[in-house]
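[step 3/7] fold_predict: job queued, chain A
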Amino acid sequence: MNYLAHLHLGLHTPDALVGSLAGDFVKGPLKGERPEALENAVRLHRAIDAYTDRHTAIAQTAALFPRALRRTRGIALDVFFDHCLAKHWEQYAEQPIDSFTQQVYRALAQSHHLPEGLARIAPRMSEQNWLASYHEWSVVERALNGIARRLSRPELLDGSFQVLNQHYEQLEDLFHQIYPDLQVFAHNQSALR
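[step 4/7] structure written:
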């Protein structure tokens, strides 16, 4: 799952929202250097990633991607699943997406605990409304191109958008199969903390 899904699946307090995003930017063990709610959200982010990677439906996607893209298919799927979540937001969330994303942007703007990489992109994320814009198909291509530019080997994502486009309906069905499982998993993990 990518940014929007991690935010939706986590708790919605300001520190937890920041932690849901920080999971992509904080590496290594958590040492209590940040608020507990933020670190718990990073732990949940990591658990969601591991659960998603092990989900049986994800294994089915390997055959859809050419061998050259199999190492990075998880990146492409994460972005695609955010697109699906934004597109079908009302099916999975009670709060309107615009209200939710504004809550996220406020939490980012007010936090003093943003990891460096997140602090760098947070203003653009808010100004360009990255989270709600995922419902637009063209944003998926732009997001993948942006991710590719940050990779040491950008060519590893070449052709990913075309694969997603070619198998759009099948992958969208897969999202609807996986996301409810993720909601249950995230709820149960949050209840343990």
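[step 5/7] annotate
The chain has twelve helices and no strands.
The longest helix spans residues 168-192.
exit 0
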